[in-house]
Write a structure and sequence with these properties.
Low-confidence stretches: none
Number of domains: 1
Helix content: 40-55%
Oligomer: single chain
Order of helices and strands: HEHEHHEEHEEHH
Radius of gyration: 15 Å
Mean pLDDT: 94
Length: 155
């Protein structure tokens, strides 16, 4: 599995903008866009859960080259909590209900724009990792917290 690349983030940003998809980069891919020095295997997107946004998301994903089954399309359109896609040009996790973040609208109010990328605030990324309880997230938390201190002082 190849590492997620900046070029792929650009493709997501540009195609999602064409379709009017409401989303935020979250997880390590979001932290990377903020300057966090690490790698990740996929992009994690916090997606606004609405039927219209789900339909726009499906159209954008298909334009990007994701091969979606009818079942996957239905899951995306209804906003299933978590949809993992490995059926396209790169791996993509769609998160409609991330741990530790109450609502998309609240996260949107706190989000950061970086070169046109809508990114969850680093505090939300950390809160989500804390709430997930996964071992790999617990291991990355000290580095993310340290980066948050650097990032907050830089901005």
């Amino acid at each position: 599995m190849a590492a997620f690349e900046y070029r792929q983030a650009e493709e997501i940003r540009d195609v999602f903008a064409q379709h009017g998809v409401r989303y935020l980069f979250i997880g390590k891919s979001g932290a990377l866009l903020l300057g966090f020095p690490d790698t990740t295997q996929d992009a994690d997107l916090f997606v606004d859960k609405s039927p219209a946004n789900g339909r726009a998301l499906v159209a954008a994903l298909q334009q990007l080259g994701f091969e979606l089954t009818d079942q996957r399309i239905a899951e995306i359109e209804r906003g299933k909590d978590f949809v993992q896609l490995k059926c396209g040009p790169f791996d993509l996790d769609l998160v409609f209900a991330p741990d530790g973040i109450e609502t998309f609208d609240n996260a949107w109010k706190r989000h950061v724009e970086v070169e046109g990328f809508p990114v969850c605030h680093l505090d939300d990324i950390i809160a989500s990792k804390e709430a997930s309880g996964r071992q790999k997230d617990r291991e990355s938390l000290p580095r993310l917290r340290s980066f948050r201190d650097y990032w907050a002082n830089r901005n």
